[in-house]
# Entry
Amino acid sequence: MEDLPGDSGLDARAVVEHLRALVDSAPGAYPRDWLPQATFDELLVRADRDPIHLHPSLHHLHRRWDMGHARTQTGTGFGPKAVIRRLLARIVNSALDRYFAEEQEFRAALAQSIDAIAYRVDEISSADLRSLLEVVRNDLLDLARYVDDRIDTRLGDR
Amino acid sequence: MPRVAVVTQHWGSRADELTETTRLVAGALARHATVDVVHLLAPPEPPRTSADSVFGVHQVPLHGARPLRASILRAALGTYDRGRNVPRRAATILHDLEGSAPDVPDVLARLAPDAVVLAGHHQPWDVGTLGVRGAIGSPRVVLLPYTAEGSILRSGPVSRLLARADAAGAAHSGERRALEVATAGTVDARRLGLGVGVNRSAAANRLFGVRFFGAYVLIIRSFPPGGARWERSVTHDVLRSTLGDISVAEIDGDTWRIGDKENTLELPVSPSRVNLWRLMAHAIATVDLRPPGPVGRETIESLLLGTPVVVPEGSAAHEHAADAGGGLWYRNDGELIDSVRALSDRRLRDRLAVQGKLWADRNHGDMDDFVERVHDLVLGDRRSASWRDPS
# Structure
């Protein structure tokens, strides 16, 4: 708007006419007579859900997947019951050690994979969807511009 | 104190532009006169008199009115020749759809007012009962047509109102010009210069969460909630995509939101006028996307708050923007975007804002001036002739 008419007491009518003249001489970078109606805003609002990786059940999983403490704890005290419990724990742990180690690995892998899926879902439900909608929207604007140009060309032929 | 009767369909609790305007005019009159409101009510209810603030309200049944059908027919006729030449048969049907309020003359005879204000051009009762213009003993009649459409002003029913009216009040200069053309200057037509108050101290505080989005343009798609709204108009998303780093705030009835390229925030606020001012006061521009109303109140408010406007051509809002030099106007979506992009230029924006505010302050910002204007329009010379202020 460097070449606005007049410096003081600006006449809005002159500005509107000036803008219209500019457009007539050089059509803008966006369509003028038809604009896409799809806003995608509702989709974007729905995309902004609370991140699933902050879900309480995932938090619980992260706190409970490790059973190392249960395997190493053998109890305390020197009474007959405590001595028998420690003895049994040693026997059970040595007999099932391989099973418990596999179980521990399985639970760790489970927590990691659920975590990865949750993060991926969060990405898909916001950023990826936003990017996708941006592409679709730009395509629609391009299409509108193309249709506009074609109409202008056809009208110009007459 | 003189007595003024305001005859209108626009009264009650609705927050539409015409009801608010009628209330403002009646309120201004109440400073110098006893004001009775004759409210034509459809669907009809039994006649009833009640008090509403300082006004006595006389509810009068409006029989057989079909406002929705009339609006549809008017819109359909408007697509042909912009409604300039309404066929006689269609005009008769339109007149019938307005219904009839035969009780109005009796109520007015009982009130014996010094002046009668006809607020709105739908007056389906016999105005001939008000006597002849200028005759001794007959009340002064002032018409507020609430339309600048020449076809309506020249139609039979409105012509009869204008033939009886001593004066007419126009909501904007375009309406005043249309009245002068329709009456060939036989009626004293003046701009009302509606007194519009804005709470500037409240508007100084931004709405919560808006600051994060930086500079923004405000678009009004529908306000107040339940008001007129186009089914299709330029979308939030498309406008935003053409404005670079400028965000877009939108008011669509109860839904208020603001968005930039990355984020959209639904504003958790009540859809009140004060919150509208808070959003308006800090915007780069106010863009009106609504079907044009007859008064353009939000445009005046935006100008009072120093925010330029972008409004549809041919509307009351356009007349305000042009008179003020406080905004731009558009014919289609492309021009709307051109105008908003032009206002991203700070130099242009500031000049329009200063001019708009000066004009709005001078013509709409002073309530005392408005009261005097309305007094002069409605009571004319009667103030000195038939009554005197005790002071």
